[in-house]
Amino acid sequence: MKTITHLSTLFPSSLDKLAEGLETKVINNKLISVPKKFGDGCLFFTQITPNISALFIDVTFNTEIKFHRISGQDDLLIFHYDLSEHVNIIKINNMDYEIGAFDRLDLAIIDNNIDSIFKPAANERTVAIRLIINKNILTDFVKTYSEQIKEQKTTSQKVSFYHYGNIDSNSILLIQSVKHSSIKDLSFEPFLKGVSLKLLGNFFNKFYNPDSSSSKIREIENTSIEKTKEYLQNNVHGPFPSLTFLAAMAGMSESKYKDLFKKCYNTTPNIFFVNEKMKYGKKLLKSGNFRSLTEIIYELNYTKLSYFTSKYYEIFNRKPSEDFVKNRR
């Protein structure tokens, strides 16, 4: 396994060791394009304010690589948001933590004064945002959280600041919006800066106001569920996209997604999708644009007329042939 040793700082110079380890150069003080030897993708750095910087990672490594971030003298905190669709590993204080993969914890906050190791999975797309923040602007947060840690440790143990938890639903949607953007766009850098500041705002709002933010979180989650419903309605011509995909779109685990969808619409995503398909199928049957039922089931991405017929009858208590208006031209 290749090991790349580097430091985290607020400045673009922190990219130099990463680029050296990947056997390439830094472009314009902000971009590392990963050589094909190691994979496909890039790392993008931007300094947002004198006290906050961001590193966006979007890479599919084709070999196992270990990024060893050595402790530095700069008084910084590193917020690692991981929205990969698989399990990556972060090692803190000799403990391995699984991060990413939708249904696992996906946020790590690490003190720059302790070492950490990041091991992205090989042959999988890794998507993460690392925010590097000067502790001087987080004095109250560091004090409050450190006191909580001390309560959990004996006096003989060394207190090291790190946190491991979940990204809130709104932040997941923000990171997904960056994930689907192109670094080639001129607006990408200011967009990344704006998203990074919103991520911090979401985290601290939840940290300081856990109760008052709950209704807002519910509203965000309902909006996320609504977006997946609209996606299903707009894609009835294709196959069911899978619960994993829909849960990721909503920014939550599969189990939570299924529960919330059922509460919102009193049915499962799959049954909802089939019902919408049948409604669309009914429109096609009555459109007069098709010469056979076979043409229609292909339009719905079905291969068996018997399946379409049974589902159609379940919903409308009629056979598709009874509603079929044939194109006789």
TrEMBL record:
**What PROSITE patterns does its record include?**
HTH_ARAC_FAMILY_2
Enumerate the spans annotated as HTH araC/xylS-type domain: 226-326
**What would be an example GO MF term here?**
sequence-specific DNA binding
Superkingdom of origin organism:
Bacteria
Q: Which Pfam families match?
A: HTH_18
Mind telling me what this protein is named? HTH araC/xylS-type domain-containing protein
- The species is Flavobacterium reichenbachii
